[in-house]
Amino acid sequence: MQETGEYEIKESELYLYFLTEGEKDTLGYRADFNEDKTMLTLSPTYPIICIEGCLYRFKKE
């Protein structure tokens, strides 16, 4: 299992880079914060874009 990698933020896009079986994989997400920066919403953008709404929400505690 790969537990390390790299990330990059370009404007409102978050890119995760990691190695899988010796090859570099990339996942891309649109990253949006609410007004008071207590909730982060990530929506997949790369390599797949969801037809129906799919997202991940993280709440700051």
Question: Concise description?
Answer:
The chain has strands spanning 6-10, 13-20, 23-33, 39-46, 56-59. With 61 residues, the chain is mainly β. Strand 2 (13-20) and strand 3 (23-33) form a beta hairpin.
Number of helices: 0
Helix content: under 10%
User: Can you count the beta strands?
Assistant: 5
Largest sheet, spatial ordering of strands? 1-2-3-4-5
Structural class: mainly beta
Which term fits the overall shape?
globular
- Which series of helices and strands comes N to C? EEEEE
How confident is the prediction overall: mean pLDDT?
86
Residues in β-strands, percent: over 45%
What's the multimeric state? single chain
Distance between the termini: 28 Å
Regions with little confidence, pLDDT below 50 for 5+ residues: none
Radius of gyration: 13 Å
Summarize the main sheet: 5 strands, antiparallel
Protein described:
This protein has a 5-stranded antiparallel β-sheet, with no helix packed on it. Strand 1 (about 5-10) and strand 2 (about 15-20) form a beta hairpin. It has strands at about 5-10, 15-20, 25-35, 40-45, 55-60. The chain is built from no helices and 5 strands.
Key structural traits:
61 residues; 5 strands
Please write out the topology:
Blueprint: E1 6-10, E2 13-20, E3 23-33, E4 39-46, E5 56-59
Antiparallel strand pairs: 1-2, 2-3, 3-4, 4-5
